[in-house]
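TA notes, week 10

Several of you asked for a full example with nothing omitted. So below is the full record: structure tokens for the whole chain, then the designed sequence directly under it. When grading your own attempts, check the secondary structure regions first.
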């Protein structure tokens, strides 16, 4: 008599070819209403930048019209973008966040 548990075991080979998730750039778009102070604070709160790095990125956004603030897997990038947008709207700022696939 054979053991019933061994009959039902399926042989599944592990998939050794696990693909890294695609990375996406989180890009802040400059506008003429959102204050630089607010942008600095969102960079510190949402992306964990220190004060000097957040100020430098904010100045780049202001001078160049936009800047990449993070490169993250899609789901995290999307969530951060939504959270920043909701925070901006709750403070009545039109700050725009764009996601772009990293190539």
């Amino acid at each position: 008599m054979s053991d019933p548990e061994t009959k039902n075991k399926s042989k599944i080979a592990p998939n050794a070819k696990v693909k890294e998730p695609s990375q996406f750039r989180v890009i802040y778009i400059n506008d003429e209403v959102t204050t630089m102070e607010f942008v600095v604070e969102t960079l510190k709160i949402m992306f964990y930048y220190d004060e000097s790095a957040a100020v430098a990125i904010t100045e780049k956004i202001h001078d160049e019209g936009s800047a990449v603030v993070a490169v993250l897997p899609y789901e995290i990038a999307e969530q951060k973008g939504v959270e920043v947008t909701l925070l901006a709207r709750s403070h009545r700022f039109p700050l725009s966040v764009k996601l772009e696939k990293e190539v």
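The chain is about 45% helix and 20% strand. Use that as a sanity check on your answer.
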